[in-house]
Amino acid sequence: MNTLFQLVMANFKEMVRDRMALFWFLAFPVLFILLFGTIFSENNDTASFSIGLVQEEPGLLGDGLAQALGSIPSLKIERGTSRQQELRALERGDRSLVIVLPAGLSRLLEEGSSAEIPIYYDETRQSSHVLLPVIGRVLDEVERRMTNSPRLLDPRPEPVHAVRLRQIDYLLPGVLAMAIMQLGLFGSLRLAYLREQKILKRLGATPLPRGMLLGGEVIVRLLMALIQTTTIVVIGALVFRVTVLGSWFIVVGLVLMGAATFVSLGYMLVSFARSEESGHGIIQLVQFPMMFISGIFFPVNMMPGFLRPVMKAMPLTYLADALRQVMTGTPPQYSLATDVTVLGAWLIVTFALGIRFFQWE
Amino acid sequence: MSLNNSIVNVQDLRKYYGKVRAVDGLSFTVEKGEIFGMLGPNGAGKTTTVEVLVGIRKRDSGTVFVLGMDPERQPMAVKDRIGVQLQTASMYPRLTVSEVVRLFCSFYSRHLEPAEIISQVGLQNKAGTQIKNLSGGQVQRLAIALAMVNDGDLVFLDEPTTGLDPQARRNLWDVVFSLKKSGKTIFLTTHYMDEAERLCDRVAVIDHGKIIALGSPHDLIRDHFLERALEFIQPALAGDERLSGLSGVTRVRGNGERVTLYTTDVPRTIASLMELGEVVGAPIKDMVIRQATLEDVFLKLTGRRIRE
User: Fold this and answer.
1) Which of B20, B39, B189, B234 is the most exposed place for a label (fewest CB within 10 A)?
2) Cβ <8 Å between A198 and B90
3) A152: part of which helix (H) or strand (E)?
4) Closest-CA residue to A240 (of A40, A106, A80)
5) Per CATH, the architecture of A50-160 is what?
6) What is the pLDDT of residues B231-251, one digit of tens each?
7) pTM as predicted
8) Predicted pLDDT at A130
9) Where are the domains of chain A?
10) Which residues of B touch A204 (CB under 8 A)?
11) DSSP of A106-125, one letter per residue?
12) Looking at chain A, which runs of residues are DSSP E strands?
C-alpha cells in the first residue's frame, strides 16, 4: 500500500512539475471555455429584441402599450419620433419590429370603430415570427381592458423547471470530455518515455510488480481527470453560471470511466509505437479527428451524413453525450445506458489489446 | 539450491537473438566479497548476462543461481535482495534525488535510511535537485545509490563509468571500493581495461558471448605475458621483419606507425633496436616501456583491440 502511495505521489509530482503538461491538461480547456463561451454568449444569450414604437398623435394608448410591452423580459421598447426614422432603423437591423400608432387612432376608437395598427417587420428574420404573435397578444390584452370585457380563458404561467439551454451548456461538458480524452491519450505517452529512457527496465529490476507500476500511472491520470472536472465546473459556474443539474455521483463516475477508457486507448496506441515520437504521431492522428467529429463543438445534425458512422464509432461522442445530459440536461442523442455501454466496450477492448501488444522494451 | 557457497553460479548460459549468439555458453562463479569484472567490447554479451542474472531477461539454456536462487523461477525474491545499476538507464526526470531514493526504498522489503544512502555516494548537496538538472557523473552516483537502497549482499554495476570524464570515473571508483569495504559482493561489467585492472579481484574477459580468459588481472597478465611491452613510433620500421630477430623479442605487433615489441629482456632489446635504427637511418622516437595490460591480453587472444 505504501509502495502504491509512493508511486502515485511520485507520478503526481512529475506531472505537476511539468509545466507543459499542466498547460495542456488544465489551462487549455479553461481558455477554450472562456474563449468560446464568451463568443457564443454574446451572439445568443444577451440577445434581446428591440421594438420601435411610434406614436403619431399624443394619447394614453401609447404609454399603456409601451408599459405592457416593456414588462415582457427581453423586449426593449424604443419610442421613436417618426415612422420613417424607425423604419430606417428596422432596415439597418437595429429594430426587430416597429409598431405604429397612426394619427387619428383615438378618434376612431372613440367612435367605436376598429382601427388598424401597422406592424412592420423583417420577413427574413426568424425572430419576427415569434414576436408577431406576442405583440398580437399584448394588443388583445390592451383592447380587453379598454372594452372591459371579461376574460374567459385566463392563462396562469407556473414556472417548473427553468432549464434554459444555452450554447455554453452544450459546450462545457463537451470541453470537459475533450480534456479527459487529451489527458488519457497524451498522458499515456509517458509510458513510451519511461520505456525509451529505460526507466521501465530499471523498475523491472526491482521487486515492484508491473501491475502496481501501471496502477500508479493510471491512478494519477484519474486524479488529474477529477482535477480537470473540478476546474472546468468551477470556471463554468463562476463565469457562465453553468450549474450541474444531475447527480455529482454520476458525473464523477462518468469522468472516471471516460478517463480510464482514454488512458486504455492511449496505452493501446502507444503499444503500436516504437518510440515516444512515433507514439505522439499516432495519437495526434487519432485525437485530432475525434475532437471534431464527436459533436463536442456542434450537434450531430450539423454533421455531413458521410461522417456520421465515424462519429457513431468514436468513444468521445458517448462520453460527451453522457456528460451533457447529466451535467446540463442537454437532450441526449443516446440513452445514458447506451453511452456507458459503448464506453465500457471501448475500455475493455483497448485494455485487452494494450495488454496483448504492449512491449516493455 | 546452489551447488556451493558461491554468490553467483552460472553454468553453460546461452542466449541467442535470432542468429546472434549474444551469450554462448558462459560458465563462472562469483565468490562472496569479491569484485568480479566482466571485460569485453561492446556487443560481447555483458549486458545480456547481467540482465539474465538480475531476472529481467529469460535465458535460452544453462543453469543460473544468484544468492542460491534461480532468477527465472524466483524473480521477486532475487530482486528483493540484489542491487542493480543498469547501463544508460535514467530516472524520473522531475523527481529530486531524495524523492527517487525514497520511492525505491518503498519497493523493497527492507531498506537503509535514504539520507544515509545519499551521503554514501556523495550526493547530500544534491538531495533536493531534480534528476534532469544533475550532471552525468551525478546521475551515475544516483544509479549506484539506487542499487544500494535495499542493502543487498550482491550489487550489479553494468558499465558504471561509461561516458564519464576521468575525474568523475575516479570518484565513482571510490564509491565502488567503499561498497566492497562494506562487505558487498560486486558484479561489474566494463569495456575499460584500466577500470577492470584497478577495481576487480577477478576478471572474465568475454568476446562474442564466450569467456576467453578468467582470473585476477595480475594472473591474466602474468600467464599471457612474461614479457614487457616496448612501444615506439617509426614508420620506416613498421612491418620490418628484422624486428622479430632482435634479442629478447618474443612477438611483434604493428598498429600503423606505432610498433609494439614484447620482450623478456628490456635493456638488450633497446640496445639492439637502437642499432637497427641507425642501420636503417631512422631514429627511434617516443619510446615507451610498459608492463603488459589486459588490453594486451585481449589483443593476444582475439587479435583485436577492445575499443575497436
Assistant:
1) B20
2) yes
3) none
4) A40
5) 3-Layer(aba) Sandwich (3.40)
6) 888 877 777 788 888 888 888
7) 0.75
8) 78
9) 2-41+166-357, 50-160
10) 56
11) HHHHHHT------EEE-TT-
12) 49-55, 75-80, 97-101, 119-121
